[in-house]
Write a structure and sequence with these properties.
This protein has about 300 residues and is an alpha/beta fold. Helices cover about 35% and strands about 25% of the residues. It contains 14 helices and 14 strands. It has a 6-stranded mixed sheet, sandwiched between helices. Strands 2-1-4-5 form a 4-stranded antiparallel sheet, with helices on one face. A 4-stranded mixed sheet has the order 11-14-13-12. Helix 5 crosses helix 7. Bound molecules: adenosine-5'-triphosphate (ATP). Adenosine-5'-triphosphate binds next to helix 1. Keywords: ATP-binding, CBS domain, Nucleotide-binding, Transport.
């Protein structure tokens, strides 16, 4: 879907991105992560030509991005950023409708789409569509920013620290929304973050950058279990790697199916990292597991945390 071939960007004689090769498949959730100044935002902005690359080729859907008009690229790619960039004198509805208006969608279709997106992001349409950005909390503004990026159902969603500056609870709930939207829509997503747990929770593929170069790329499990060098190991936190691996597994996949146990159950979708916390805080070695509808599916055994999943 998006390919970088030997791409470099040089600012004032210094490369911000150097000889970058990336292949982002359609439908894939790619997370760009790295130290501050490693070139993450520059890489993202080169995709929709907010920054023009100096060397190499960037292909979108098979064609060099210079063959597209920047406006066309930006209509086909939603873009959400930390500072949100909502228009202050426009209502929530007008902000979300920016691209559909440009595309001259009929009024009724725009209204329906705004309602649909507000519902998707858990904002009550009747209460929020007429409000102005200053009448919203920071988290609500970020939700509207994400809704705006999704409005015209873009082929690609580009996000630069979209959940930055949020409290951990709101951040976790927006992360869950994005994961759900990605699963439902099957859209290609490229997200920049410096939050390792966010990257591990969301990514199909992580691209770790340092000083404008890719140090390693692969699935979260691959980077945690087969780090290419000491930098990668240190970046993901040597002592913490086991705990981070637990965050990649779900209780449902590790539960012994068919077993039953009374007591307060945990959800099948709970990560093994959270389950570990439950084992310790409840001082138990067995936890009943239920599915989304609350039906019992089995029992998670403490000792099974370190075994491969029954099915994953
Ligand atoms: N417009 C610009 N002019 C000059 N230098 C720039 C410009 N934009 C970025 N740079 C430089 O390019 C390098 C990469 O910047 P970039 O913003 O891509 O990094 P980043 O990984 O997104 O960093 P952070 O996590 O701090 O946001 C940095 O050294 C930065 O100072």
């Amino acid at each position: 879907m998006i390919q970088f071939q030997h791409v470099s960007k040089i600012f004032h004689g210094k490369p911000a991105v150097e000889n970058l090769n990336l292949n982002i498949a359609e439908g894939e959730f790619t997370v760009l992560i790295g130290t501050s100044g490693s070139g993450k935002s520059t890489t993202l902005k080169m995709i929709n030509r907010l920054i023009e690359h100096d060397q190499g080729k960037i292909l979108f859907a098979g064609d060099e991005i210079h063959s597209f008009k920047p406006q066309e690229l930006r209509r086909r790619m939603g873009y959400a950023i930390q500072s949100i960039g909502l228009f202050p004198h426009w209502t929530v509805e007008q902000n979300i409708a920016t691209v559909p208006q440009l595309l001259k969608w009929p009024k009724a279709k725009i209204r329906d789409r705004v309602s649909e997106l507000l519902a998707l992001l858990h904002l009550d349409a009747d209460r929020f569509r007429g409000r102005y950005p200053h009448q919203l909390s920071g988290g609500q503004q970020q939700r509207v920013g994400v809704a705006r990026a999704l409005a015209a159902d873009p082929e690609v969603l580009l996000m630069d620290e979209p959940f930055g500056a949020l409290d951990p609870v709101t951040r976790a709930s927006l992360q869950a929304e994005i994961a759900r939207i990605h699963q439902l829509s099957g859209r290609t997503v490229v997200l920049v973050t410096h939050d390792i747990d966010e990257a591990l929770a969301l990514a199909d593929r992580i691209v770790l950058l340092d000083q404008g170069q890719v140090i390693q790329q692969g699935s979260p499990r691959h980077l945690l279990t087969r780090p290419a060098n000491a930098f990668v190991r240190d970046f993901f936190g040597r002592s913490d790697i086991g705990i981070k691996l637990l965050a990649l597994g779900a209780a449902g996949a590790h539960a012994r199916k068919g077993e039953r146990l009374p007591g307060k159950p945990i959800a099948a979708a709970m990560t093994l990292r959270e389950a570990l916390s439950e084992f310790v805080s409840r001082q138990t070695e067995l936890l009943p597991v239920v599915d989304e509808q609350g039906r019992p599916i089995g029992v998670l055994h403490f000792r099974d945390l370190v075994k491969p999943a029954v099915e994953e």
